[in-house]
């Protein structure tokens, strides 16, 4: 590493200049990242303004081009200075360092180096934070986009496959950014440690060096003071010896001193001052020799080493910073456009351009349309005009009275309307018209012969598919004829009543939901069965009931306020529970009618399934481990402890817990609408997943909720999202 004394420019200005050039290059080569690049330029500008004497734009030619492009090897020192100027500069530097101002000069220079290291350390911290925010934002965007492209509203086919590859590419770019951010954070820590050590050394040598300088200065000051006293006494003695009138008259304790006495007194004082002056000169000389010979060179050497160490450490971090920037941009570039593999057998990595070009719009369109072939409605008959039965009697010739059936009752208009109505109802069946004897068959149910029903078992379905509206009962005019033939002695009354019952007993439109009166038998029970047994029987890691309930909440309950907190209808829960115990593979909650449009009942059913497990989802064996982990106050340590216990769960429990936690994370993402945060969900689900609060577990209620809250808060740190 070159010595600091060989450089002609202050170190802090050079570091800022390299920072400016490097980030100008980053800005010019990453146009597609506008928000981050503007943040980088703002941060670099803020760092540059911290210096009081910045170089002009023309000075950028020293370490790079004027447009911000670095040379192959950036040079910090000026390489264009004549070689002949190096010797005078070195001599002048040595003269200054070993002069009286040398230690103060080196202390100020070391202070500048420490300040430069701290400035660049702060820059690295902010730069790392900017890159970390960008990487996290990119990851969130990738996750959101991946969820959107897999929804039913988005295109499928080659589009979703290729866009998945593009999202994985962006995820690698985010990983590169996170690694770059971690590297900058480590560099920030290293520079902080270097600055602290340099500051500690500076304080030590400031104390030692300045104390040595002060001792020499104090000795010289004492010498000057003794010399002044000595000179004054010598002048007084000279005046007394020459008989000066002003100096010959002195008043003592015994009166006026004579001239000889005064001269003798001054001589004695002069001799004492002379001895003191000689001693002070000798002391000052020894202090000066000690300072020049040992103390000052030692302090100068130590300070120079500290300066070189600080500058070398800062230069190393600058070089690492430049290298990490190159690796970041190169890694992102290779991710977007990979280099051709040298090994032909190696898997081919597609570039972003190739991924986009592989999207086949025509094939995707054809596949989507052909996927609806099975949904094409089948026409059972040709288009033809069918006259409504109410208009048919007006267009036909009235039936003569001699040809009217004998089973009818005489009365005005009584025979025609019932007969025409009955013939109309019979015409709706796919079979041929019954023989004449069938006109009396409807009377059999009223005479206690249930073995021969008057109609087949499917007439209600035929009536349901008839052109008459099923919501209003029988057609207009039919009930009137029935009332007129309801006399007990009329032979036509039973037949008419049988037809009327067929109309009045027609059900409303059939709903997929089961009825409360007919619960199916439990052929394949799921409630109260261990997860291991369910996995062995159904061969699904996540039970079908858990999957169906989460699917229903994802589709219809994410924005429902109080989901998983509010209870559903008990009768609905019991009926849906019976369906799952009968055969869970027949249940499809994609149709909200299957759960009575009551998503709270589905949420309650899911919690009831976990409550009725013989062994809770988080298992009794792992209970103490979870509770002990919940007692840890540090968030990171508590998360790691909970994660360790989760990894020890059986495979069915782990897979089911992962699916439930990812689902609850989707629920809490809609907190603004459903008001269910991670803490609320933890309170609602903790008793179901860890066991009810009974016995000694009552005191663990808050710890159980804390366990689940920790899992939900660190969903993607504990479980893989894919």
Automatic annotation (TrEMBL):
Species name: Aureobasidium pullulans (Black yeast)
Region (Disordered): 380-517
Gene3D superfamilies the record matches: Arfaptin homology (AH) domain/BAR domain, Rho GTPase activation protein
SUPFAM superfamilies: BAR/IMD domain-like, GTPase activation domain, GAP
Protein name according to UniProt: RhoGAP-domain-containing protein
Biased composition annotated in UniProt, kind: Low complexity: 438-450
Coiled-coil segments: 209-236
Domain Rho-GAP span(s) in chain numbering: 529-719
One annotated GO biological process: signal transduction
Lineage of the species this protein comes from: Eukaryota, Fungi, Dikarya, Ascomycota, Pezizomycotina
Listed Polar residues bias regions: 393-410, 418-429, 465-488, 498-508
Pfam families: FCH, RhoGAP
Keywords carried by this UniProt record: Coiled coil, GTPase activation
PANTHER family hit by this protein: RHO GTPASE ACTIVATOR (RGD1) (PTHR23176:SF136), RHO/RAC/CDC GTPASE-ACTIVATING PROTEIN (PTHR23176)
A cellular component term, taken from the record's GO annotations: cell cortex
Source superkingdom: Eukaryota
Keyword Coiled coil: yes
